[in-house]
Write a structure and sequence with these properties.
Length: about 200
Amino acid sequence: MDEDVLWPQAVKNKIKTGNDRELVHSYPYRSACPNTVWADLLHAAEGELFFAGYTSYFLWSQIPRFSELLLRKARTGCRVRFLLGDPNGEVTRAREAIEDVALSVSTRIRITLEYLDKLGTVPGVEARFTAPEDAVNHVSLSVFRFDHDALVTPHLARLVGHDSPLLHLHRAADGGMFDRFAEHAEELWSRAVPVGH
């Protein structure tokens, strides 16, 4: 039978195929993604939580009882990682000048570090600063991974994270969009420097 008989255009427009299958939802602004999406993904994750946002400070105000959830996840064997920008780094200073907002990039990173410090030393929870040579690639793209789901924010020009778009991806196949962004974050992590060293 002819493909158009089996799959009329109206059906094709509704069914995702190929790499498009991995795109669960897109939001024109990170702040437009409901808090429940973040919380649901966090609660569902069992093996991998990787917060590769340059500052990631907003997670504590966006997800209720975030610190408690992180501790619970780590204690049940989930790997929890934070990849942050260096608050004293050259790229951080340059980004602060670009954004020109009162809550500076370095302050937002230090807020995250303060929350992580309050967690104490917990097996399974790691934090690193991006290597200086990778910082420009990190500051322009945030990847938040929850097992086989990811929330990805490409940062636009002078906009802060909450004003940039967000993509919700779910891994469907090798080499798809999810893998591309996950591999980017892993590469940055591989060269990153442990916090406190």
